[in-house]
Amino acid sequence: MHPFAYTRVSDTREALKAGSAGGRYLAGGTTLVDLMRETVERPGTLVDISGLPLRDILVTKEGGLRIGALVRMSEAAAHPAVRAAYPVVSRALELSASAQLRNMATIGGNIMQRTRCTYFRDVTADCNKREPGSGCAALHGVNRSHAILGTSGHCVATHPSDVAVAFAALEARVRLLGPDGERVVPFADFLLRPGSTPQREQAVRKGELITTIEIPALPRPLESGYLKVRDRQSYEFALTSAAVALHIRGGVIREAKVAAGGVGTVPWKLPAVERHLIGERPSDALWAAAAEKATEGARPLRHNRFKVALLKRTVERQLRIVGGTK
Ligand code: SF4
Q1: What Gene3D superfamilies does the database record attribute to this sequence (predicted)?
Q2: How far is CA 251 from CA 9, 275, 278, 283, 321, in A?
Q3: Which of 2, 92, 125, 314 is least surrounded by CB atoms within 10 angstroms?
Q4: Measured from the CA of 136, which atom of ligand 1 is nearest?
Q5: Is 147 in the pocket of ligand 1 (CB under 6 A)?
Q6: What is the pLDDT at residue 325?
């Protein structure tokens, strides 16, 4: 680990000052400290923000949710308001990492976490994300776990977060506070596809701090859930996953929110699947036909062609779990 300075702040003003001066924010530390040990990350100064008052979960008067950036994953998963309104969020959190990590890691840190591409974490390998311009060892290396959607010739790494898939499906927003004030970024614009600059992963400006994740109110009743397919049943990242929320009234699907994980360079919203569902009556045939749309635009690599079929099955199965069998 490279030497670094450490400072602990007690209010947001102090945090922004230290962040604007180039300090890296540290909350749960479950990703950043790991990467520092592996010398992938070498921050000069760590700014410990874990004492900031960003640990509330609030229900808005419209019925949406505001989750403070420093709420622990386990706290959010167990919160009665989250469980009641958005089981898809609770379930995605429960299926993430290990119990110990969920007790440490924060919601803000979770969506800021970096890829699990093994070449990214191996400082001897070529990696454009870690070392811009050096190449991408995964393109012609072992790429079984890599992305099939949103890739570029510069990077094919997946985004590892589960709860980010739920946030993408629900069209959440990220509230940021920076030296120039506050702004709100739609989740769809928050995480960046690699393009030719894979080292840029989030739409966060220098010194900005995530304060809140906002989930908009959706019509009720709303059934939702998260399905994760992986090589082993715990403490493993998704090969494929599906976050689904459906509002069904009078036997007709009025709203559909669907996103996929484990397959995209960012959590992958599935608008073609949603469009196929809205206005239709639930049926097994409908779930299967909608799921066929999940892989539009997919560009599999040498070792991950299986993800095309697996993603369709994952989406179809989760649509059936949430929407029922007919
Ligand atoms: Fe690096 Fe992305 Fe290539 Fe992995 S896929 S080696 S993170 S550039």
Answers
A1: 3.30.465.10, CO dehydrogenase flavoprotein, C-terminal domain, Uridine Diphospho-n-acetylenolpyruvylglucosamine Reductase, domain 2
A2: 53, 17, 12, 10, 16
A3: 2
A4: 3
A5: no
A6: 80
Judged against a pLDDT cut of 70, whether residue 93 lies above it is answered with yes
Atom of ligand 1 nearest to the CA of 146: 5
Q: Is the pLDDT of residue 326 over 80?
A: no
Any ligand 1 atom below 6 A from CB of 119: yes
Domains along the sequence of the chain with CATH: 1-50 (3.30.43.10), 223-323 (3.30.390.50)
- Please work out whether the CB of residue 114 comes within 6 Å of at least one atom of ligand 1: no
Taking the CA atoms of 186, 191, 194 and 198 in sequence, report the sign of the dihedral they define: positive
Q: Which atom of ligand 1 is nearest to the CA of 143?
A: 5
pLDDT tens for each residue of 12-60: 999 999 999 999 999 999 999 999 999 999 999 999 999 999 999 999 9
Measured distance CA(100)–CA(104) in Å, rounded:
7
Q: What is the mean pLDDT of the chain?
A: 97
Amino acid code (one letter) for 209: L
Best of 121, 123, 128, 158 for a ligand 1 pocket test (most atoms within 8 Å of beta carbon): 128
pLDDT tens per residue, range 120-151: 999 999 999 999 999 999 999 999 999 999 99
